[in-house]
Design brief:
The protein is mainly beta. The chain has one domain: OB fold (Dihydrolipoamide Acetyltransferase, E2P), CATH 2.40.50. The protein has a five-stranded mixed beta sheet. Strands 5-8-9-7-6 form a five-stranded mixed beta sheet. β11 and β12 form a beta hairpin. The longest helix is centred in the last third of the chain and has 9 residues. The protein is globular and about 45 Å long.
């Protein structure tokens, strides 16, 4: 529960519904994914290139004996692929019982957001197919990645 200041300046114990997100970067753009969808974050693992049917899939990697496809989010969002460095990470999530690794340039922090501050409007047209909304944290606008939309684009 979060204490809110009402119009009279008094504290009001109105309950504010919050959602937690993991903030990360693809290129210079800040994104978020629902924290409940994140299984783990790992340093990049070796990627085995495969003859994939979709350009978003960079290949597969082995995570504790499980073969996991690696999705290059820079490719999905039409950003130039940056040279790997020590900040690069894999965000491991799952979709329909299949683990998936999102390759990102940097994982920043966990953010708690008042659900009322999340909008479904996305002004960046090239992100629209894979983003389900946005919110502002401080001075930064974050776009919420919808893994279902990404995976559907890959499968179809």
């Amino acid at each position: 529960m979060e204490m809110m200041i009402n119009t009279f300046g008094w504290q009001d114990d109105t309950e504010v519904e919050q959602q937690s997100f993991l903030q990360f970067y693809v290129g210079q753009q800040s994104f978020a994914i629902d924290l409940q969808e994140v299984i783990e974050i790992s340093k990049p693992l070796p990627i085995t290139r495969t003859q994939t049917v979709h350009p978003f899939i960079q290949g597969v990697t082995d995570i504790r004996g499980e073969v996991v496809p690696v999705i290059e989010l820079a490719q999905a969002f039409s950003y130039p692929q940056e040279k790997p460095d020590e900040r690069e990470r894999f965000i491991i999530t799952s979709y329909e019982e299949q683990k998936v690794a999102f390759r990102v340039q940097e994982v920043a922090q966990i953010i708690f957001v008042n659900k009322a501050k999340i909008t479904t409007e996305v002004r960046e047209e090239h992100l629209t197919p894979y983003v389900g909304g946005s919110f502002t944290h401080g001075e930064v606008e974050l776009f919420i990645v919808q893994k279902e939309k990404l995976w559907d684009a890959i499968e179809h």
